[in-house]
Design goal:
Blueprint: H1 2-9, E1 16-20, E2 32-37, H2 42-51, E3 56-60, E4 66-67, E5 72-79, E6 86-88, E7 93-97, H3 102-111, E8 114-115, H4 127-132, E9 136-137, E10 140-141, E11 146-152, E12 158-162, E13 168-169, E14 172-173, E15 181-188, E16 190-191, H5 196-206, H6 229-235, E17 242-243, E18 246-248, E19 256-258, H7 264-282, E20 291-292, E21 297-298
Parallel strand pairs: 2-5, 3-5, 4-20
Antiparallel strand pairs: 1-2, 3-21, 6-7, 7-15, 8-16, 9-10, 11-12, 11-15, 13-14, 17-18, 18-19
The structure holds flavin-adenine dinucleotide.
Length: 300
C-alpha cells in the first residue's frame, strides 16, 4: 500500500520492499531492508528523501566495512553504488560520485598519470565509504586527498563542505557522525612520481597475509595505539575460534570470516569473545573497526 503510494509519487524510482542485503556486503551476513533504493543521482536521492516521512535512513556503500543486523532493518536503506560518475575538473582534480569503486578510482588516477592513492591498493568498497572511515594503510588515508564533499541532509538539500569543515584521523572522519549522505567528493591528486609503482606493489604485498579470498569485512578491530590488533589477537589464541558459521582466520587473527552460513549475531558474538580474551590476557581494550549498519539520520 505504502509502496504503491511511493511509486506513484516517484514514478522513475525503483523502490524495493523487504530487500535482502547480505549479498550487498563482502561478509555476506544480515537480513533485509524494509525499503531499499539505489538512486543514480543526488537529485533523485533528494526526491526520495522528500517522499519518505518519519523513518530512519541508512546508507550502504560497497558493504565492505559493515555488519548488517539479522532480521529487518526498519526504514530506508540507500545504496550509493549507482552514484558512480567521475568528471575531471582540471588536470589533477576530479569530482567523483560517492558510489565510485575505490579500486577503479586507483586505476583511473594511474591512467591519468597521477599518484597519491597507492596506499589504497587492495581496499574494496566505494569512495563514500572510504571517506567515512578515512580508509587507508600504512599511516595514510583517503581524507588527505579530499578538497570538499557534497552531501545531502535530512531535508533533502545538497550541502558542500570544505575540508576545514570536517576532521579525520586513523580510521575516522567526523563527516560520518554529521547525519549526511555523501554524494560526491572533490579530490586533488599529485603528479605521478618515480617509485609509485613500487609503492603500489609494496602495499599489495602486505595483503598476502590477509584472507582475501574469503568472505570478511576487513579488519575487525582498529590497531590500539602502539599495538597491532592482529598480533594481540594471535598471541591471545584467537585464531581458529568460532561461533556458528563465523571463524577467526588462521591466516590473520584480525579477520573474522563467514564460512558460509554465519549470521551477523555469530560475527558479533565472536568479536566480543575475541575482545574479551585480549582484555583479560593482555589488558588492552580493542575498538571495533567494522561498523554495524545504523541510521544516518531520521526523517521527520
Ligand atoms: C578484504 C578487505 C580488506 C580491507 N582492507 C582495508 C584496509 O587496508 N584499510 C581500510 O581502511 N579498510 C579496509 N577494509 C575495509 C573497507 O574496505 C573500507 O573501510 C572501505 O573504505 C569501506 O567502504 P564501503 O563503501 O564498503 O563502505 P560500507 O561498508 O558500505 O559503509 C561503511 C560505513 O560508511 C557509511 N557510508 C558508506 N557510504 C556512505 C555515504 N556515501 N554517505 C554516508 N555514509 C556512508 C555506512 O553507513 C557505514 O557506516 C577492507 C575490507 C576488506 C573486505
Amino acid at each position: 500500500m505504502l509502496l504503491n503510494k511511493l511509486h506513484s509519487s516517484l514514478p522513475d524510482t525503483n523502490i524495493k520492499e523487504n530487500w535482502p542485503l547480505s549479498s550487498l556486503t563482502t561478509l555476506g551476513t544480515g537480513g533485509t531492508a524494509e525499503f531499499f533504493v539505489s538512486p543514480s543521482s543526488p537529485e533523485e536521492l533528494c526526491e526520495i528523501l522528500q517522499a519518505f516521512k518519519g523513518c530512519p535512513v541508512h546508507v550502504l556503500g560497497g558493504g565492505s566495512n559493515v555488519l548488517i543486523p539479522d532480521g529487518l532493518t526498519p526504514g530506508l536503506v540507500i545504496s550509493t553504488r549507482k552514484m558512480n560518475s567521475i568528471s575531471w575538473l582540471g588536470i589533477r582534480t576530479a569530482e567523483i560520485g560517492a558510489g565510485y569503486s575505490l579500486p577503479v578510482l586507483l586505476k583511473e588516477v594511474c591512467s591519468h598519470g597521477l599518484g597519491g592513492l597507492e596506499f589504497a591498493a587492495g581496499i574494496p568498497g566505494t569512495l563514500g565509504g572510504a571517506v567515512c572511515g578515512n580508509a587507508g594503510a600504512g599511516g595514510l588515508g583517503v581524507c588527505e586527498l579530499v578538497d570538499s564533499v557534497k552531501a545531502v541532509d535530512p531535508s533533502g538539500s545538497v550541502r558542500t563542505l570544505g575540508r576545514d569543515e570536517f576532521s579525520y584521523g586513523y580510521r575516522r572522519c567526523s563527516l560520518s557522525g554529521m547525519g549526511l549522505v555523501i554524494v560526491s567528493v572533490i579530490m586533488t591528486f599529485r603528479d605521478a612520481r618515480h617509485g609509485d609503482e613500487e609503492e603500489y606493489s609494496r602495499f599489495m604485498l602486505k595483503r598476502e597475509n590477509q584472507p582475501l579470498n574469503a568472505r570478511s569485512a576487513g579488519c575487525t578491530f582498529k590497531n590500539p595505539e602502539g599495538y597491532s590488533a592482529g598480533k594481540l589477537l594471535d598471541e591471545c589464541g584467537c585464531k581458529g575460534l568460532s561461533v556458528g558459521g563465523a571463524v577467526v582466520s588462521d591466516k590473520h587473527a584480525n579477520f573474522i570470516l563467514n564460512t558460509g552460513n554465519a549470521s551477523s549475531s555469530d560475527v558479533l558474538e565472536l568479536a566480543r569473545l575475541c575482545a574479551q580474551k585480549v582484555h583479560e590476557l593482555a589488558g588492552v581494550v580493542l575498538e571495533p573497526e567494522i561498523r554495524t549498519l545504523q541510521p544516518c539520520f531520521f526523517l521527520s
